[in-house]
Specification:
The protein is an alpha+beta fold and 108 residues long. Helices cover 44% and strands 17% of the residues. The chain is globular, with a radius of gyration of 14 Å.
Length: 108
């Protein structure tokens, strides 16, 4: 895709499509959920993103995350700090103050 491949962010680092979409969508309220979901998937990495998904954001800023199993839920809870920091960095705003992790189906 012209103009997006190899786009560079701060300090000349390459940015992924998910990061660019998250940044572009985050100011629009109707697209905020998609932006947060994209930022979460990128922040936690592909292996973990296959096992968990964001379903929303609470009023106090916690991401509502659904994990495929209790084991994955524990892993995500253990990584909550770094995941939230990465989500916030990708969105360039303090969106994620923590995680509310639940176990359930993750199919869209």
């Amino acid at each position: 895709m012209p103009g997006t491949r190899g786009a560079r962010g701060p300090r000349g680092r390459r940015r992924t499509i998910a990061s660019l979409l998250a940044e572009a969508l985050s100011p629009r309220e109707e697209a905020r959920r998609a932006a947060v979901a994209a930022a979460f998937a990128e922040a936690c990495g592909q292996p973990l993103a296959r096992e968990a998904a964001v379903r929303g954001v609470t009023e106090d800023g916690r991401l509502i995350v659904v994990a495929r199993s209790a084991d994955w839920a524990r892993q995500i809870e253990a990584l909550a700090g770094p995941i939230c920091a990465r989500v916030n960095a990708r969105l360039r705003a303090r969106v994620a103050s923590g995680l509310a992790v639940r176990v359930g189906p993750i199919a869209p």
